[in-house]
Specification:
The complex is a heterodimer of chains A (about 350) and B (about 290). Chain A is mostly helical and about 350 residues long. Chain A contains twelve helices and three strands; from the N terminus they run αββαβαααααααααα. The N and C termini of chain A lie far apart (about 65 Å). A six-stranded mixed β-sheet of chain B has the order 6-7-8-3-9-10, sandwiched between helices. Classes of the chains: A mainly alpha (about 350), B alpha/beta (about 290).
């Protein structure tokens, strides 16, 4: 009998795993609903509906203790008592309000003319992230692989990278603006600074973890340094490299908010900040949740694609999954298929009877 | 052909591998020097099958890694066809104990690897690799991934991959050590069969004396360091008085048993046991009698 999923080192059935996956989202949502909709849970403030003889005005939010004192005061003075209902502070909107905001955020025009719509802000954020990540990867992946594969490179590069890694990326904000201006360039630079140095170290480590005997086997087969790198080290670490980049893409998102507030604010952080200024906290929540959804969905999609990229790693995707991938990837593979067909039917390749 | 005739004919062949006063020492912790090998000398002749046997810690693996050029030696010389060995090269093929097929390449592409490193064109390399796969009986697995093969099949592909690069000598570092006894016996027979079809010299490391004796023309017995020898040293080279081709039935022959016992005595000198004086640790319940 296998140990249950709640025991240390236990095993989880696929069904329980799926149920728990749902619970991971439903439990926090349930807690949020409870705090929002059950009137005696928390609700530390009172929303004044009728000020009576007190100094309050309608629509004001006051602390419950203050409200009770005002009621007692009114009773002893013989004036009309204030009335109202218990509410949560304005910074904790109810789920339905946030849900509504998620919808209306995309359908209502911005308050000021010329400001971007929510989807435009979001698109802007995604493009900043992607540019930052692509630039960081173009430098970080080759450098990391070199550091992991060549000990002298590691000694030369890693100590300094380690030194910079500890400097918070936002600290470079002022510098980036001075050098790169106030538009997207300094924002992309912050994301590059935030991810590049971690990337070099993580990928160097992944490269060092490649089974040494594979390198030795290639050496006894006569591989040169260049071929060792390109035909053994790189393909050997590819599955782990892909996972590393997925994790690092998540880190890029954590630098987004700071990056976007540097210079001329833009993107989803600008939207969140702006809505905070209007005290439209349901919109703030909607913005934060949107970032989470984009992150989670993109990561899951990348993980799903990853299952098809490395057929040698032995994990076999399910049949429906394979069909779905074949359909999704068809446009990308079309040129390749056409090339193979063209070669097959080329007159030079026709077998003469 | 009698056994002594065979050894005379082997002795007449040219020397392929010449190991002279090989020593290997490295600085240990605490400022001392650790000796792995001490003054090891032997020669291997063309198409000879030599096994190296010894208890763990006597430097078997270090020896074969030095021969492959994967580990540097600190004194003496290794000559292959008269040229000193410095670093790994395709003239010395190697089969490792662990599975070292490249997991991202199909079985066929694995065997093609060494050929491609030698600038053999794709089509020629493919045709040649298929022949080697056919020799190890795995041509039908050419398009499989390494992870789809059993342990024994993987080592057969590893042998094909090493041979395809056309080495002068094949070094094998406990290649069957991780396999179960049945697969191991099959692969031993298979290896001898390959050896009979291929003009290749083999140096085979193992800790299994039966395997060492049954496979080899000659068995080199390595000894762990002792008072007179700071590192692992070569005790003796034992010629195996069994005719070729070998059969499983020879495992029961007197010649096999005598050789086996001779080597066993070299590796495990008789020790005085003090078993009677050892206390018996009591794991039983209170009140139980120790039987």
């Amino acid at each position: 009998m296998a140990r249950g999923g709640w025991r240390v080192g236990g095993e989880l059935s696929p069904r329980s795993a799926a149920v728990l996956w749902c619970c991971a989202f439903l439990l926090p949502l349930a807690a949020w609903c409870a705090v929002s909709y059950v009137p005696w849970l928390w609700h530390p403030q009172v929303l004044i509906s009728e000020p009576g003889g007190s100094s309050y005005s309608a629509g004001m939010r006051v602390e419950r203790a203050d409200f009770a004192a005002a009621q007692r005061e009114a009773a002893s003075a013989g004036t009309a008592p204030p009335s109202g209902e218990r509410v949560n502070p304005i910074f904790l909107p109810a789920p339905h309000a946030v849900g509504q905001a998620l919808w209306t955020g995309f359908t209502t025009p911005p308050l000021r003319r010329g400001d971007p719509w929510l989807h435009e802000s979001l698109g802007h954020s995604v493009s900043v992230i992607l540019w930052g990540f692509v630039i960081a990867s173009l430098i970080g992946v080759p450098l990391g692989i070199l550091c992991g594969a060549v000990p002298a490179m590691a000694r030369l590069v890693e100590p300094f990278v380690d030194f910079i890694r500890y400097m918070p990326a936002p600290a470079f904000g002022a510098l980036c603006v001075a050098v790169l201006g106030i538009n997207d360039a300094p924002k992309i630079a912050i994301i590059v600074i935030g991810t590049l140095f971690q990337m070099v170290l993580v990928i160097a480590n992944t490269t060092r973890n490649l089974d040494r005997s594979l390198v030795e086997a290639a050496l006894t087969l006569g591989a040169s340094d260049k071929r060792l790198l390109l035909r053994v080290v790189v393909p050997g670490i590819l599955p782990n490299l892909y996972t590393d980049l997925r994790v690092l893409l998540g880190w890029a998102w954590t630098y987004l908010i700071v990056a976007e507030l540097i210079g001329a604010s833009s993107g989803i952080s600008w939207y969140i900040n702006q809505q905070g200024k209007y005290r439209a906290y349901e919109n703030v929540f909607a913005g934060i949740i949107l970032i989470g959804i984009i992150g989670l969905v993109s990561d899951q999609v990348l993980a799903w694609i990853g299952r098809f990229l490395f057929p040698w790693s032995g994990q076999r995707p399910s049949k429906p999954s394979q069909i779905a991938f074949a359909i999704v990837s068809f446009p990308l593979r079309l040129p390749w298929i056409l090339l193979v067909l063209a070669r097959k039917h080329h007159p030079a390749n026709q077998v003469k009877p | 052909m009698s056994v002594s005739d065979r050894f005379r004919r082997i002795a007449a062949r040219p020397v392929v591998l010449d190991v002279q006063h090989l020593g290997m020492a490295f600085p240990g912790s605490g400022g001392g020097v650790v000796h792995a090998l001490h003054d090891v000398s032997f020669q291997v002749r063309r198409r000879e099958f030599v096994t190296v046997v010894g208890a763990s810690g006597c430097g078997k693996s270090t020896l074969v890694r030095i021969l492959a050029g994967l580990t540097a030696h600190s004194s003496g010389e290794v000559l292959l066809d008269g040229r000193p060995v410095n670093g790994p090269g395709p003239d010395r093929g190697m089969v490792f104990q662990g599975y070292t097929l490249f997991p991202w390449l199909s079985v066929l592409k694995n065997v093609m690897f060494g050929l491609e490193m030698q600038e053999v064109g794709h089509d020629a390399a493919r045709a040649e690799a298929l022949q080697w796969l056919d020799l190890v009986g795995l041509a039908h697995k050419a398009e499989a991934w390494p992870h789809q093969l059993s342990g024994g099949q993987r080592q057969r592909v590893a042998i094909a991959r090493a041979l395809a690069a056309k080495p002068r000598i094949l070094l094998m570092d406990e290649p069957f050590g991780a396999l179960d006894p049945q697969t191991r016996a099959n692969l031993q027979e298979h290896l001898l069969q390959i050896w009979s079809h291929v003009d290749i010299t083999i140096v085979f490391i193992t800790h299994d004396i039966d395997e060492a004796v049954w496979l080899a023309d000659r068995v080199l017995v390595l000894q762990p360091p002792d008072a007179a020898h700071p590192g692992g040293w070569l005790r003796e080279a034992v010629e195996v008085p069994l005719p070729v081709p070998r059969t499983r039935a020879m495992l029961a022959s007197d010649a096999f048993r005598a050789t086996r016992e001779r080597i066993d005595a070299l590796i495990h000198p008789p020790q005085v046991h003090a078993a009677e004086r050892l206390p018996v640790f009591k794991l039983t319940q209170a009140g139980d009698e120790i039987l």
